[in-house]
Every structure is written in structure tokens, then in C-alpha cells.
Amino acid sequence: MKLLFLGDIVGRSARDAIVADLPDLRARLGADFVIVNGENAAGGFGITAQICNDLFDAGVDAVTLGNHAWDQREALVHIEREPRLIRPINFPAGTPGRGASLLETAAGERVLVINAMGRVFMDPLDDPFAAIDEAIEACPLGMAADAIVVDFHGEATSEKMAMGHFCDGRASLVVGTHSHVPTADAQVLPGGTAYQTDAGMCGDYNSVIGMEKEEPISRFLSKIPSGRFQPALGPATLCGVFVETDAKGLAIRVEPVRVGGRLIQSLPVA
After folding, report:
1. How far is CA 99 from CA 79, 130, 260, in A?
2. Active site residue 68
3. 70 pLDDT exceeds 90?
4. Pick the catalytic residue: 68, 78, 153, 178?
5. Residue 211, helix vs strand vs coil
6. Residue in 128, 94, 92, 132 with CA at minimum distance from that of residue 112
7. Of 20, 23, 100, 184, which one's alpha carbon is 20 to 30 angstroms from that of 258?
């Protein structure tokens, strides 16, 4: 199976790039299943039902979230109706939505998508390791699922790396989101799990992690907010990872993806 994961969508320019470029990108890679992190899609903060539907119409199969999951209040209702919209699994019991969803490709292959949020320098949610372990045990790779993808939304590289090794041999891909900067450590771990510490964002990299530069710089200089953060509107780079799996659902190949915008381009050969 061929899997494409794209990192945090930040604002309109990234959404427009997804709509314009994803159909061709998916076809060129021969991707069977596409996942994007959409927690910053609505003006940098949260996601709406309309944006979610636009992403699905563009060829996205699943949308994961993170610490901005509820910034748009309508998401609390939409997530109950939409099994392809997945929030961190380690939110407290009773939180709307689901943290893991078993979805199908067009060919009928089963992909378990798990979203979790780290706790180092983040909100003190429930234990993500225990929550992911339970989800994988309930739907094991090669038995109930043909592929398992874990989006680990976290700040600390150490916590993300620990999660990768914790899931090694039990997941097809563990990939980090949240920092909005692609890391250079794409690899297949010893047990056969593809891993990258952070997929990077889909957004304008002439920015401060996707936001127009002036306000973040001003806050670093003065420690005083002078306005709202606004997503940068220049050409977006779509950043992520491409994974190919074997018959057991383990990775035989992982490569970074960077398409469009300012960053050095990286497009795997299908």
C-alpha cells in the first residue's frame, strides 16, 4: 500500500494549494490513502465543516487534529458526524469525536488512523502511550488493519522519537506534527515502522511557522501582544511523508515530500 501524510495545513494559501495540487500529487505517487493534519486550517486556528469537506473533495481520506481542535466551536458537532475527522485519542473520556478510526481505501484495504497529543510542553492530557497501545492492541496490524498510521502531535522531539520506537513493528507510520518545520530524519525503524519526527506544515514558509512575521517578532522583542496572529498568504509548500508498505503493513520505504512554495523540492518517484 502507498500512503501519503501531509503536515499541518495553515490557513488559506495551504488550503488552496491542497485543492489545486493534491489530485495530481496523489496520482503521481499512486497513493492509496491520504491523511492531512487540519488543526490550523481555519485561519490558523481549528477547522470548520466546510473546510473539512473541501479537503475530502480534493482527495483527502482522513483529517487529524491537535491542540487547536476546538478553536472553531462547530467542530464539536461536526466531529460526531464525520468518522474521517479524528482528534487526539488521549483527550479525557467524554470528549466529542474519536481518536482512532478504521477507514477503507478505494480498493477495500483497511487503514487505522490514530491521532494523539504529546504531554511535554503541551496540555496535560491522558497518557498518549497507553491510549495508542490500547488502540493498536484492539486493531492489530496485519490482522484487523492492513496499515496503521499514528499522527503524534507534540512539541518535544524526544517524546516523538520515543513514540516511534514504542510503536515500532506495530504501525506502518509514526509521524510527528505541530512544530510546522519538516525534520530530516525520515527512516524505517528496525521493526519496520516508518518514522519522521515532524512532517512540517503545509503553508507559506516566508513566515514564522505559518504566521505573518511582524506580530511574532514583535512579541519576541517586547513580550507584549500588539495584534492577532494571521496566516501568511504567500505560495504554500506542501510538506509530508510518503510511505510504501509490504503485505504485512510494515514500511519498506519512506521519503519526505515537499512540493511548491519556497522550500527545496522533494518528490518521491512512484
Report:
1. 11, 13, 31
2. yes
3. no
4. 68
5. strand
6. 132
7. 100
